[in-house]
Design brief:
Helix content is 41%, strand content 17%. Helix 7 links the parallel strand 7 and strand 8. By secondary structure, the protein is of the alpha/beta class. The strands form two sheets. The protein has a nine-stranded mixed sheet. It has a three-stranded mixed sheet with strand order 1-5-4. The longest helix has 22 residues.
Amino acid sequence: MKNVETRIHLMTSKKGIRKSPKFDEKELATHAVNGGLKCGHDCLYCSTGVSVRRHKKFKEVKEDPFAFGYAIVDPDISTLVAKDAQRLTESDLVQLCTIVDAWSPEAQQYNLGRRCLEALLTNTLLKVRILTKNAAVAKDFDLIEKYRDRVLVGLSLTGTQDKDQIMHVIEPNASLNSERMAVLKEAHERGLRTYGMLCPLLPGIADSPEQIDELVKFVVDCGAEEIFAEAVNRRGRNFILTQEALERTGYCEEAVAVEKIRNKKLWSAYATRLIQNLQTSVRRHFDIEKLRVLLYPKNLQPLDKQSITQDDAGIVWL
């Protein structure tokens, strides 16, 4: 679902597939494909701008890397991907995507998701991990079925279905969580490999024990091979933008919850509770050995870090 017209800028990439040490460290992938620099989903909590802000393309198109309402996409990325894919082996796992979304509205205009999948999977042995917030990925399930053993399907879930409207404020151009859940369920019913991605789980919106339990049970019922999760990243102006949008639309309690974690100590407490709730739920419904909570310890207060260290099952320390 899409609110406003998005300005689309085109770019030309130098490479189709890049090694991704950071995502390898996160146990997500060895390599990455990104069909652009800026995603049109416009998720207000997104911190990607911090990583890509120095790219010369932003100055060229006269856009702020931290602003919204526009996208930067490479419509010909699949040609480079096809070339680079021939050099990879069956031990390589490529994530589509890590910075932008291959099924975002602007990516759909160029059929980037399907074209990149075809480039990655044709005449290769590599594996692919799909991560998207858009239900449009279901249109490509027929292709994925042909390579079902080599593709992992994931739709990032950021809230339970009853939070659709509030999350639509924060993720205005992404599919609703209920739509993503329906597509993940369909993937499982079609015999496709799936995994859970619960990220980010915002305070006051998706971090209670009951909400986490609902999400964990859902992805387990969808055949998830593993579950990834993460607290919202505290880089850039994402907390301020999220808080302001919630206030404007009348979600005042949730806005206060987000405002609180702008404080480093309170963010640390939130992340610690979130981890404990995830561990409890996964132990109840799944296998703690298959939980992957991505965690940067530098953002934790000493006592919180000590508490997590005492039981760090499922933690990927970064």
